[in-house]
Amino acid sequence: MVSRVIPVDPFDLVVFGATGDLARRKILPGLYRRFWAGQMPADSAIIGAARSEMTVEAFRAVVREAIDEHVSAEKRDAATIDAFLDRVDYVTIDAKGEAGWPSLKAEMRKGMVRAFYFSVAPSLFGDLAERLHKHGIADAQSRIVVEKPFGHDLDSARALNATLARHFDEHQIYRIDHYLGKETVQNLMAVRFANILFEPLWNAQYVDHVQITVAETVSVEGRGAYYDRSGAMRDMVQNHIMQLLCLIAMEPPYHFDPDAVRDEKLKVIRALDPVQPQDIVRGQYRAGGGQAGYVDHSENPDSTTESYIALKVHVSNWRWKGTPFYLRTGKRLRARASEIAITFKEPPHSIFDDEKGWRENVLVIRLQPDEGMNLKVMIKEPGPGGMRLVQVPLDMSFAEALGENGTDIPDAYERLIMDVIRGNQTLFMRGDEVEAAWAWTDPVIRGWEDRGDRPQGYDPGSSGPEDALMLMHRDGRRWREIRD
Predict the structure, then answer these.
(1) In sequence order, what are the residues at sequence separation of 6 or more whose Cβ sits closer than 8 angstroms to the Cβ of residue 34?
(2) Which residues are substrate-binding (predicted)?
């Protein structure tokens, strides 16, 4: 099977903050890969905009360097790179002033899709939105892309949404969460809703529990001051993990339509029970392995911010009542791994005498480092000597089924940016969805702050604090091993 590349309409894409880290690592290399694949029309234009004084030639040199560093060698050929750079321009912009805006307006072409990527601090969103309209650069069909964080709490999220709403309608605002652009996350919806196999079992009657793990080996070094104001709960659970939880727990939408999908995700968030103190474990990595600890990286020896968190949560609706969802994420852990594991219940009665080797059926959805799925089932162990059971995985990765193109999975940012150009908001968060997530998150954070709880130390390269193991053990369950 060969994957199809469907070109989008010609567009003008303005990247604010074009000289920043995100633009250099993800946005600009991703756009080049879409150009290389034939999805980005040759008459499209990419306009970098930032406060740095820079010529077009100097900015193109920055883009070339980003391509060399972040695009694989087989996709880099001189002719294609040169053709791509011909579509790149640059404007020096003062986000809080008037300099550069007339020049940006002059770059806009009639009849093109206009998109504006706000790869800047949220404090600049309002200034950019206001000036885009003041100078007649954005119109009713324009789209803006905003990066997280979407606020620091419910009040700030509401204020941010109100700021954007003064200048853009909700259908023009694309709140990007790159986890939703991952191939396997989208295939989760396909597996659930395009096949009869799993959906009848996708409920509390048959599912024992669900584990969602996002483990990272990196520290917060270099961004410790920012992270110390955020922590794992705000940085990962409120957005990335919440979105994964919603896709697992949501009801089938009436149609694969942006608002239909997001309506069902919103229902899940609103059905989440408050989290009890005994169902929360917070951790902070210590120094070890010749590297500094969290308090050193945050430059705050009295920090009570968590670099690790584990939660047991419940969705109170007919489908999931009584089925726990265990969530965990952390820095400086044993391996970089993100996965969702749906563990099904044991059969009500076993016909086999030897049950010592019994294991539950588990559907594992791997998000990173190797995107794919497998289903663990029980079979007879080969050989004579009776009916001995052994658990084996049925590989459901898509690489073999899709041939060579199955291994060439586009980066999440590539897919999401192309969705912006298409005007498809299915994989982007809606304003009320963001606010509902904060409405659930804020009391959890306020609870441990009021109690004066401090995170537990854990060794770098481990699976996290010891109490996180007890969170599962007291329920007669175990965390899945964190490994590459």
Answers:
(1) 40, 410, 414, 417, 418
(2) 178, 182, 216, 235, 331
User: What 3-state DSSP class applies to 14?
Assistant: strand
| The two structure tokens encoding residue 451 | 């109690």
- Residues making up the annotated binding site are 17-24, 51, 148, 178, 182, 216, 235, 331
Q: In what order do the strands lie in the sheet with 372-380?
A: 389-395, 372-380, 362-368, 337-344, 207-215, 324-330, 308-314, 280-285, 456-458
* Residues of the binding site for NADP(+): 17-24, 51, 148
Q: pLDDT tens digits for 297-320?
A: 999 999 999 999 999 999 999 999
pLDDT reported for residue 294: 97
Residue 202 burial by Cβ neighbours in a 10 Å radius (0-12, 13-18, 19+): buried
Q: Select from 317, 392, 324, 381 the least CA-distant residue to 352.
A: 381
Report pLDDT for 1. 47
The pTM for the full model equals 0.91
Say how far apart CA 174 and CA 145 lie, in whole Å. Answer: 5
Q: Are 322 and 309 in contact (CB under 8 A)?
A: no
In a domain, 162, yes or no: no
* Distance, CA of 405 to CA of 2 (rounded, Å): 6
Cα 131 from Cα 119, distance rounded (Å): 16
pLDDT the model gives residue 319: 97
**31 domain residue, yes or no:** yes
**Cβ burial 285-313 (10 Å sphere, 16+ → b, else e):** bbeeeeebbbbbbbeeeebebbbbbbbbb
**Annotated binding-site residue numbers for substrate:** 178, 182, 216, 235, 331
- Of 368 and 473, the structure prediction assigns the larger pLDDT to 473
Q: Cα–Cα distance between 232 and 282 in angstroms, integer?
A: 9
140 and 77 both lie in a single domain: yes
Distance CA 92, CA 167 (A): 22
* 185 shares its domain with 122: no
CATH of the domain at 22: 3.40.50.720
**Among candidate residues 468, 433, 370, 427, the one with its CA nearest the CA of residue 157:** 433
- Domain of residue 84 covers 11-147
- Answer yes or no: is pLDDT of 359 > 90: no
The Cα–Cα gap between 264 and 262 comes to 5
Q: Is 473 noted as a catalytic residue in this protein?
A: no
In a domain, 139, yes or no: yes
Catalytic residue among 152, 171, 209, 240: 240
Q: What is the CATH number of the domain that holds 369?
A: 3.30.360.10
Classify residue 49: in a domain, yes or no: yes
- How many angstroms separate the CA atoms of 242 and 227, rounded? 19
The DSSP annotation for 357-419 comes to T----EEEEEEESS-EEEEEEEEEPSSSSS--EEEEEEE--STTTTGGGGG-PPPHHHHHHHH
pLDDT one-digit tens code per residue, 429-470: 999 999 999 999 999 999 999 999 999 999 999 999 999 999
